[in-house]
Amino acid sequence: MVDIIRALDWTYVSTIASEGSYGEKGVEAFTQLSKEAGGICIAQSLKVPHNPKMEDYDKIIQQLLETHHSRAVIIFATEEDIRTTELRREKNPLWSNCDEVVLTGVFPKPCSSSSTSAPPPRRRCCRFPFISCRSESVGNWSGTEPFSPFSSVPGFDEYFTALTLENNRRNVWFAEFWEENFDCRLLSASKKEDTSRKCTGQERIGIDSKYEQEGKVQFVIDAVYAMAHALHNMHRDLCPDHPGVCPQMESTDGKTLLKYIRNTSFNGSAGTSVVFNKNGDAPGRYDLFQFQMTNSSTTEYKVVGQWVENLQLRLEDLQWPDGEQEVPISVCSLPCKTGERKKKVKGMPCCWHCELCDGYQYQYDETSCRLCPYNSRPNSNRTACQPIPIIKLEWHSPWAVIPVFLAMLGIIATIFVMATFVRYNDTPIVRASGRELSYVLLTGIFLCYIITFLMIAKPDVAVCAFRRIFLGLGMCISYAALLTKTNRIYRIFEQGKQTVTAPRFISPTSQIAITSSLISVQLLGVLVWFAVDPPNTIIDYDEQKTINPKLARGVLKCDITDLQIICSLGYSILLMVTCTIYAIKTRDVPEDFNEAKPIGFTMYTTCIVWLAFIPIFFGTAQSAEKLYIQTTTLTISMNLSASVALGMLYMPKVYIIIFHPEMNVQKRKRSFKAVVTAATMSSRLSQKPSERPNGEAKTELCENPAADPMSQATKKTYVSYNNLRI
Q: What keywords were assigned to this record (predicted)?
């Protein structure tokens, strides 16, 4: 029975037993063997009590319905209990309308003693295929009932139907059988009181009454022969050459007789060998039958397999409800899908809950999930781990197209400005703008555009090294040159308020030296950075490690942190802020006198750009799009800074040089003394009236030359010097 259950892949079954030794011992043995075999769980063990009522059967049917996963039911019960259970099942309202039943009842009854007597199924959708067994052995000696269908013993029918009251006087129960079989009364000591018809003695078995060979005949015959062979062997051993029972046999006990019985072997009445094992059980030899529907819409038992020490079951010969080809399922829990682990139900090894291995876990075995390595993610069915795809900022990405486009325009514009300045290198406007610092500033602007391509290029050691060098170098060169310019303007006009002596370090050579010293600080910091932390590439798996593993990506990038980027730009930002301060201080210098105001506008705009950059850069540090947003923000900010400087400082000059060459002419040269005097006069005229020493100073200045050390000629010099550009 256990082999049949396992062959059908049933792991969750219910049992029904008639109260008593047969039913209870049978279920107990089945349960024990199921545990030993493993993989079979008992959903519930139900019992039919002695003298059951109809309510008892209804309760059993209801309990079977409640455990709907257990579709297989093993029955150890009497013929009457099986028949009544089947009838009550068909009358159950839950079974009257099969469309409302969640499960299709499959109640196989392997090796039940009364399988043949159960009525055939009536409803197609509620069909119950039965599996029964035909025993070809004596069975054990514990009172287990034989199995049916059975094989008839040849010659027994002729012998039994020939028995009469005259030739069978030795059987003291034969007269009682005669009365019951023919429904009559014998004159002598009759025990039958429910009929008045008298037996004539001429009745014949099988003619005057129905006759069918009892299924237990072969087992009774073999049992008698087993006892006879055991006594014969005992007599041969204990009483050799002694007729009859010798004293040694008279003194033997039951254990000795049992030993001889278990050692007996002979050919039984069915033509098969009868032997017993050490437990007193006969080896099982069974034909397996299924009650099936034939092509002619009739029912019959069909042999579907055998069991001789092991099972041979022909699954293709089995019939199932609704013409299904697959074996019905009777399991507590369906197998888990791939990527799911089994969470066992306590006390029920055949029952479990399926839990998905979520997140970055994969199914390690049936009962556990494990986390993938940090650089891996589970595959589509979560049975193993696979490497996380590696990405970088691609040239065709929208995040890269815009910065590259701006950088290319800026590079073209910068080259155009530089070419124009080189072409018109000796013209007044080029010389007046400070040729040396202009070329330095244009070089810084060019590098600011170039860094865009380094930030988008595929990271490797060389690219990462150039990123460290040029990330802050372009801005440093630009703002170092602008700072030198604004500082020179500031020193000239501040010192002119106090003395006519020219400030130190205002020559072109000095300006280049100051600018170079400022740039060298940036380069020194980069060298220290190289020494402490050599450039390298890394794959960042945390940046885009999303909740959904399918979207996880590893980011190939240079080993540069956000803090290191800010530190690299920090010195340039410091130069920018300092330059802005000087631009503010020189804002009152006459408009046509110098480049202070264009530089001021450039720095104000640049500060706004970088003030917007910082919150965007750090605000997206936890974003899955961090790589794209930060790179794009940084490159666009640098492009805008360079474009502002290029547009405000050089585009007006290029416009005059190309489109208005008549304005690019030499002005009157004045001495530094005249320049200082003009600066002093500008400062005094810009004072508030209340701060002027003589009230309405401007009026007095014209009417009373003695009130101010500045002569009328000097005033004329200031007026004429307004057109001079430094």
A: Cell membrane, G-protein coupled receptor, Glycoprotein, Membrane, Receptor, Transducer, Transmembrane, Transmembrane helix
Mean pLDDT of the chain: 77
Distance in angstroms (rounded) separating the CA atoms of residues 679 and 676: 5
C-alpha radius of gyration, the chain, whole number: 56
CA–CA separation, 460 and 93 (whole Å): 77
Tokens of 404: 């590259």
CA distances for 431 relative to 392, 410, 502, 666, angstroms: 46, 24, 20, 10
d(CA 55, CA 722): 121
The CA distances from residue 115 to 132, 291, 316, 479, in Å, are 6, 9, 21, 102
Please give the Cα distance from 30 to 15 (Å, whole number).
9
Query: Helix 508-532 to helix 562-585 angle, to the nearest 10 degrees?
Result: 160
Beta strand extents in 110-235 (DSSP E only): 131-135
- Let me know: does 130 contact 113? Beta carbons within 8 Å: no
* 423: its two tokens: 């072409």
CA atoms of 272 and 432, how far apart (whole Å): 127
- Distance from C-alpha of 681 to C-alpha of 202, rounded to nearest angstrom: 164
Q: Are strands 12-18 and 72-76 parallel, antiparallel or unpaired?
A: parallel
- C-alpha span between 606 and 687 (Å, rounded): 30
Comparing 356 with 150, the larger pLDDT belongs to 356
606-647 residue pLDDT tens: 888 888 888 887 777 666 677 788 888 889 999 999 999 899
The answer to whether 453 touches 400, Cβ cutoff 8 Å, is no
Backbone angles phi, psi at 568, to 5 degrees: -65, -35
Q: What is the pLDDT of residues 77-111, one digit of tens each?
A: 877 777 777 666 666 554 443 322 222 223 333 33
Count the neighbouring beta carbons within 10 Å of the beta carbon of residue 676.
20
- Residue 553 corresponds to which amino acid? R
Q: How many CB atoms lie within 10 A of CB 9?
A: 12
660: number of Cβ within 10 Å = 9
Does residue 281 have a pLDDT over 60?
yes
Query: Using CA atoms, how far apart are residues 718 and 680, in angstroms rounded to an integer?
Result: 10
Q: State how far Cα 704 lies from the chain centre.
A: 94
Structure tokens at 716: 């004329």
| pLDDT, tens only, 229-269 | 999 999 999 888 888 888 888 888 888 888 899 999 998 88
Q: What is the pLDDT of residue 227?
A: 92
SS3 671: coil
Question: Contact 314/306 with Cβ under 8 angstroms?
Answer: no
Calculate helix-pair angle for 254-262, 217-238, nearest 10 degrees. 110
The verdict on pTM exceeding 0.85 is: no
- Ramachandran bin of 26, using left for φ above 0, alpha for ψ from -120 to 50, beta for the remaining angles: alpha
3-state secondary structure of 715: helix
pLDDT given at position 546: 85
Helical residues (DSSP H) of 247-391, grouped into ranges: 247-250, 254-262
CA angle 178, 184, 189 (to 5 degrees): 75
What's the CA gap between 387 and 367, in Å, rounded? 24
Contact 329, 335 (CB under 8 A): no
Torsion sign across C-alpha atoms 363, 368, 373, 374: positive
How many helices (H) and strands (E) in the chain? 22, 18
Q: What is the pLDDT of residue 618?
A: 76
- Here the tokens at position 562 are 């956000």
Residue 134 β-bridge partners:
287
Q: Quick one: average pLDDT of 446-470?
A: 92
